[in-house]
Write a structure and sequence with these properties.
alpha+beta; single chain; about 90 residues; two-stranded antiparallel ribbon
């Protein structure tokens, strides 16, 4: 998949709209590193990135704010993430 500036801008604009129903779905994230890569291992949440089992739940906008505060930038997918998911 090739990403160009137009596609990214459209994706960003769609992602930020609060009226999208999927944006109101709760997200489970790692309380330690804020990763969204949470797995269920034998009925227990597990962070694939750091190995923590402590998770929290919030809406995506609150999580994005927490991520920005912690890492000093907005969350973005890497090219590797995009290849894995497509």
């Amino acid at each position: 998949m090739t990403l160009n500036g137009t596609y990214i801008m459209e994706l960003d604009n769609t992602w930020k709209r609060r009226d999208n129903k999927y944006n109101m779905e709760p997200v489970i994230y790692c309380a330690k590193c804020l990763s969204l890569d949470i797995r269920d291992i034998e009925g227990k949440d597990y962070c694939e990135k750091c190995g923590s089992t402590e998770t929290k739940t919030t809406d995506i906008f609150t999580w994005m704010k927490l991520y920005r505060e912690r890492y000093g930038r907005d969350f973005t997918f890497s090219e590797e993430d995009m290849e894995i998911n497509n």
